[in-house]
Amino acid sequence: MDRRMDTPIDRRINGHIWDSRARRFQPGEITWNREGVIDGVRPRASVERQWIVPGFLDQHVHGAGGADTMDGSHQRLATMAAELAKYGVTGFLATTLTASPEALLAAVTAAGDYVSERGAELLGLHLEGPYLDPEHRGAQPPAWIRAADRGELERLIDRAQGRIRLVTVAPERPGALETIAWLTAAAIRVNMGHSGADFEAAQRGADAGADGVTHLFNGMPSLHHRAPGLVGLALSDPRIRVEVIADGVHLHPAVVGMVWSAAQGRVIAVTDGISAVGLGPGRHRLGELEVEVDERAVRLPSGTLAGSKLTLAQAYRNLLEWNVDEADVIDSLSTLVAERFGWDDRGRLAPGCRADAVVLDADRTILKTLRAGRLIYHRGNPPTQACEEA
Questions:
Q1: What's the pTM value of the predicted model, to 2 decimals?
Q2: Is 272 a catalytic residue?
């Protein structure tokens, strides 16, 4: 067995541990059992100079390391999982792109029976489309945008073996409200996005069961003081979780601060990352689309933004630089996602929870990523054997 990754580390680690209830770091030690479940978090006066937070959860990521969810391959999903672990991600929703029925079926089938033994854990799928508004499609291929189809959704859910967790829908489109209600009844979360909905249409979507908005401000009309639209609903309705891409490109840092003030406790940081995550500038893929990647952004040849190359590790540092409180940042990267999907054993470092953790230095750079107590990323040269202590 390759001992360099996923290595047992004698089930203990010490440092400044994030306490979700107290909302602060406290010096101590975490221990866990052979199943990777935390069995103790104890005070300790002398600790390593490292900061330990819950594992990051990304509910909206298309690809990484040259791989894309739409590749429809176990090998490519494994590439994504390994790359995401480098950035503190312990669990993710592999996100699809609007595509033909056949391409979507292939992608969800691969994810449905994929077991992510290494790297970040595939926790399910996020279908970003195809039930969107063509006028606000962003980088979604227009040829495959279509009206909501319950029969198609039933086939996708079946082929995904029940692993579809989130679907983005434009609430104003034909059949959308019925679809939102049906998905919600099936315990599948719904985001509203890629939508031209006015405030009233967005409110009807929330009333039908939608509880989130996909990458706020992007793929929708801007906020207007007499026509608040989907943005206004997202900022004012306490039922709605708000996705934010904190790369400094999709949103100005000042806008991020305003979103946090308006939607306190409801903001979820996502990457919308594509296959270019972890790779250099140049031409890369998003599904079947070719995109141009520079040092900051991902765009179609037309100039339209097409996902990002952001990592959650960079989002953490960006948000701190933009004066978002660190407690809110950690909630946004982990706790709020776990709570949304009912993952009671994630998003916190407490007895009974999984030992999913990110170890940071004083500058909040990733040192290690642990998944169920196993080392899935170590900065520099990974250890060649089990350590006595992480």
A1: 0.94
A2: yes
